[in-house]
Design a protein that fits this description.
Elements lengths: L1 H17 L10 H31 L4 E2 L5 E6 L11 E10 L4 E11 L7 H7 L7 E6 L20 E7 L2
Length: 168
Amino acid sequence: MKKTAYILVAAAALFGACREVPVVESEAPAADLTENLINANRYIAQSEEAQIEAYAQRRGWTMTTLPCGARIMVTDAGRGKAVEPDETLTIDYSVGAINGQTIYSHVTDTVVAGRLQPTRGLDAALLTMRHGGRARVILPSEQAYGVVGDGDRIGQRMVLVYDVRVSD
């Protein structure tokens, strides 16, 4: 008797699982999702801004905010000519996370100014500098490597702090 009951329950569950499940359409899921994503991004941006402000203040850094949101403090103006768009530059830099973790140190790289290399925010900062100049640059994650990071040492949504020098 028990065996028959188990077979009947299993058959009923099997047949019940095979029937079509109606699709319920929501009135405005896309609008709600979009609004939630906008609010989440706004919250992240505000949180990063607060972190950047506190970081610079603790160090006594007086920084200029560029239109893109990157911050720059020139520590040596340099004596060379101003960096021009489409100019090939050699830069020396170290980069760390805003939490103090060193990510890359003493890197020499060749970039073309105005081509968003290596990131949008650092490119914007370089375009405000002169050859031989040195600066501290803080990039919110959206001006650095964004949501995904660099696939190596820079993690997701990481606020970066550069010490960069443009070669003469």
